[in-house]
Amino acid sequence: MAEVIKMPRLSDTMEEGTVASWLKKEGDKVEEGDILAEIETDKATMEFESFYEGTLLHIGIQEGETANVDALLAIIGEEGEDISGLLDGSSAASDSKEEEEEDSSEETEETAAEEEEETSEKDSSEDAGGSEIPDGVEVVTMPRLSDTMEEGTVASWLKKEGDKVEEGDILAEIETDKATMEFESFYNGTLLHIGIQEGETAKVDSLLAIIGEEGTDVSGVISSLKSGGAKKEAPKKEAPKKEAPKKQEAKKEKPKKEAPKKEENKSASKNTSSSDGRVFASPLAKKLAEEKGIDLAKVPGSGENGRVVRKDIENYTPVTSGAGVQQFVATGEESYEDINNSQMRKAIAKSLGKSKFTAPHYYLNVEFDMENMIAFRGQFNQLPDTKVSYNDMILKAVSIALKQHPQVNSQWFDDKMRLNKHVHIGVAVAVPDGLVVPVVEFANEKSLQQINAEVKELAGKARNKKLKPEEMQGSTFTISNLGMFGITNFTSIINQPNSAILSVGSIIEKPVVKDGKIVVGNTMTLSMACDHRTIDGATGAQFLQTLKTYIENPVLMLA
């Protein structure tokens, strides 16, 4: 089914955009994440990526043309798909609108005088009530930082009310459903009001902050925005940028604010705090400190301006005098702690809940003899600068087996089943907030060393919240490994729209029967969750038989 793409709103003040250039032309294949065009907004020229896969069937706004937000930008669908209905609907709507404008022109002329009077009265009323945003004041709303974001949580503010702000300064760190991202200011001035406090969650477009001239009274604006009545004329938006003295003033004050932080580095108990006692730390550092019971104010920060980062928490050793004393809790006393769900945790709950209760899961368990793989890994890692893991080898074996069983490498959609001819393996990685699944693309075409290097890089990015959205998209099959935690066997929930996920347990030493004799052996249990809508039991079993061949005879992976 064809997807209609409209001119996006790429900034909080954008009302129209100009297509600077198209990076795709009609008839081109488009993958999710591909850059479609460069769009010039009122602030900058930005890349606009596709959220859909298919063929670019129609371009609605040519290079150099300007159109309002939500105007038809492009249509993506199946090659050869008939989109005349969509185009006719668009033009019909446009013709209807023109006719309505012509029909209403006479009525507009007749009531012009009345409207002028009403407008005059309304303007004077607004001036008195303060509902119109004053000149030089900019309202900043909760941005949409990902294509699926519906609400965001302010992880931390890097500015406080009364601070000077320059265009490009980082205002806050905002946690979305995918990652924690820095949000920068597009304006110069003073941070007059913070609308969403640290730890609070709000919908996209909610009042985030107000920036303007120092001393400006914005109480009327705040109350008006809460009631949805504030308005602002376009010419006033550029006022802060034109006033050069404000930029100079902000630049002069920066060294004054940074100097105390450098001095405070002499004391571990002060180096991370501002004059008002606020601790500067990354969201991940705060979460780790909370989990470990560490007082952030006592941790020396190695980040910018003494900011506490993850490694500071991991390397911190509390200074104690005498023996450590555990907190006393009276016997029989009830105790608990409420922790607000993070955006990632909400997203995991939503996606996995949908998968578990919509896809008919069934599970296939198999035990593999790991003797040959243990020996193979030992020999392979004797190569210079080589150290592959069992997980790397399993990933390689799975990718080769999937090429022989495309039904298992499939995906389920409401209107179709897709048999993928390429193999992109998703690797589940545990992070403090939950779980992410970076993707190793074309895994069957890569060597063991390449797979090892890529998995390490992706896992590192995942734990540091540096993964890009495109690095977590497009998997055709998923692997989850808990063997390193000593888990011998478990089952996983399918990562939709994939049709299956493989759960990998640990290698255990135990008695096994070989040639009629009981000997010591090494085995590993794998469990595959399958979606019965796409994979029948026999199909899943045949795949596991092929996988068994490669895992128990790993030299075949090099063939």
UniProtKB/TrEMBL annotation:
Signal peptide: none
GO terms for cellular component: pyruvate dehydrogenase complex
Compositionally biased tracts (Acidic residues): 97-126
Domain Peripheral subunit-binding (PSBD): 280-317
Origin superkingdom: Bacteria
Catalytic activity: N(6)-[(R)-dihydrolipoyl]-L-lysyl-[protein] + acetyl-CoA = N(6)-[(R)-S(8)-acetyldihydrolipoyl]-L-lysyl-[protein] + CoA
Job description of the protein: The pyruvate dehydrogenase complex catalyzes the overall conversion of pyruvate to acetyl-CoA and CO(2). It contains multiple copies of three enzymatic components: pyruvate dehydrogenase (E1), dihydrolipoamide acetyltransferase (E2) and lipoamide dehydrogenase (E3).
Designated name of the protein: Acetyltransferase component of pyruvate dehydrogenase complex
Species the sequence originates in: Leeuwenhoekiella polynyae
